[in-house]
C-alpha cells in the first residue's frame, strides 16, 4: 500500500485485477476528437534529408535543408530522431514529412548500447518496491519527485507514474532525487544528458539560422552550465478500460524543445491538428523532438508548439524518457528583437525565465493555456502604438 495518501501509484493499483476504474482517473467529460489510425493510407511515406548538408553544406544544400526545417517548425512543430544505422558514418540527418506533422532527425548519434542500457535501468527502477520508490516522493508543495499528480483542471489523475526532476544547473538537483538514484541508472543518465544536450544545441542553432536570428543570441540564452534542464521518466501500465482514462493530459510543452525517447517500442503519443488527434508511430530507438512554447515565443509565433497527449492500452505497458531544454533561469524570454518591427509587432510579453517557471508550476496543464497567458492582447498592443 502507498504510505503517503497524497501519492498515487497506478503501477501498484493494477497489480491486482480491477473490477472498475477508480473515479479519480475517469474522464467521462472529455471530448475525444477523431483519431486517425496509425496505419492509415492517408499517412505518406516519410522522405529524408541530410543534416550533413547543414553541418557541412554547399550553399544550395544548406538553403534547401533549412527551408524544409523551417517549414516543418512553422507548420507543425514535432520531429522524430532516428538512430544511426549500423556501419553508417557519424552524421545527423533530418527526414521531412509535409502532411503528418512529423519530421524525423536521422542518425542522432547516441549509441544504441547506451539507449538499451538506459532503458533496462529505467525499467528496473519502476520494478523497485514501492517503499523504495517512495523515497523519491515530492516534498510538500513541490512538483519534483515520484508518483502521480493532479495534472488537469478537472482534478483527474493521469494513468501513469512518473519521476520528474530538474537536472541542470546541477545546483538545482534535489538531494533526495538524482543524487540518490541507483548508481548504474544515475551514471547512464549523466552520459545521456550530455549527449542530448549536444543534439539540442545543434537543433537550436539551426532554428536560429532559419529565423534569421543571430545564433549568439540564442546560445546566450542557453549558456553552458546555466541552462535549465529537466527530465521525466514515465511508466504507463495497461488499463482494462483505456477508453475511460488518459496517460498524459493534453498540453503543449512549456519548453524551448523537448526530446522524448520511447523506451519499449509501445506507441501511445498523439498530436493534435485541426481538432484531430494523430497517432505518432515511433520507430525503435528513435527520439521525438517537440517545439515548445518558449520557441513559439522566441520566434514571435513563426514556429508553433504542438499540443499532444498520451493514450494507454489494455495489453502493454509503455515507458518513456523526456528531456526538457530551457533557457537559463535569469534569462529574459520574449520575441527575438530582430523579428520585431512596426509591421511585425511582438505577440508575446517579455518575462524572466524564473518567473515563467514559477507561473508554470502554479497551474494545472490545460492545452496551450499557459502560452496564451504570455500573449499580448490587442488592447495592450494599441497602448504600445
UniProtKB/TrEMBL annotation:
The keyword Lipid metabolism does not apply. Pfam families: 2OG-FeII_Oxy, DIOX_N. Residues 227-327 form the Fe2OG dioxygenase domain. Keywords: Iron, Metal-binding, Oxidoreductase. GO terms for molecular function: metal ion binding; oxidoreductase activity. SUPFAM superfamilies: Clavaminate synthase-like. The keyword Oxidoreductase applies. Belongs to the iron/ascorbate-dependent oxidoreductase family. PANTHER family: OXOGLUTARATE/IRON-DEPENDENT DIOXYGENASE (PTHR47991). This is Fe2OG dioxygenase domain-containing protein. It comes from Punica granatum (Pomegranate).
